[in-house]
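Hi there,

I know you've been waiting on this one. I reran it after we fixed the sequence typo, so this is the corrected version. Both the input and the resulting structure follow.
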Amino acid sequence: MAGRAVEPGAVTRFAPSPTGLLHLGHAFSALTAAAHGRFHLRIEDIDRDRCRPEFETAIFEDLAWLGLDWPQPVMRQSDRLPAYQQALDRLSALTYPCRCRRADIRAALSAPQEGAPPAGPDGLIYPGTCRHRRHDQAGPDDVIRLDTARAFATLGLDGLAFRDQATEPDRDHGLTAREFAATIGDVILSRRGMGTSYHLAVVVDDAAQGITLVTRGRDLLQATFIHILLQRLLDLPTPGYLHHRLIRDDAGKRLAKRDDARALRHYREAGAMPDDIRRMVGL
């Protein structure tokens, strides 16, 4: 099984994007990470169109109000584009440029099958339309995808597995290479205007910060297989993974940044104390 056991003194992190105010779910995730070891804060700001400095300021204020602190300086993805490019260069033999838009992918997937097209961590499962293209054929608006079948073949692996550190009965998770292709597909490693993607950046950054335990919501469990595959390809260490429960609203829906009523700032302004937040999220 990939991943390390949770040990006292683990190095953990909380890595929000400054695209909105932190809500109760973010508080739960950050507090869970901090409870398991030495806590780092990382700002995931590669989406320059949506990130705002006022939201980054609010992240610092809200987390400090919760009683958390972290080493300085804070790592920002926008400062690390050369590191992501270096990783992309290392993977160039296993990647290809893709010019397909979402509408193209949906059209390709909707042909004679019934029901909704298959979806994975990044949305619709890419059907491999551009897999034959070379990098010297790339256009300025192309994304870069990982040929996952070639990646598994290069590593000599027929699947991936890891043990979740969450205290849940179904802790052992695995995917064969065929299941990976069917449920995840050829993931994007570099998006237009970003120079990287979430999956590539998070793997490179976790290694750079020496993270030994990644704590995050169960909604990202499937993405962990992508990250372990990239760690193997880039010869990076695989940390332990703890996928915690999700904080939901009264209707059972997972909280999102657009759910402004649950923002920590509003609770603070209403007179709530950090212990009130801990009780709200069940800590």
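Quick highlight: The radius of gyration is 19 Å.

Best,
R. S.
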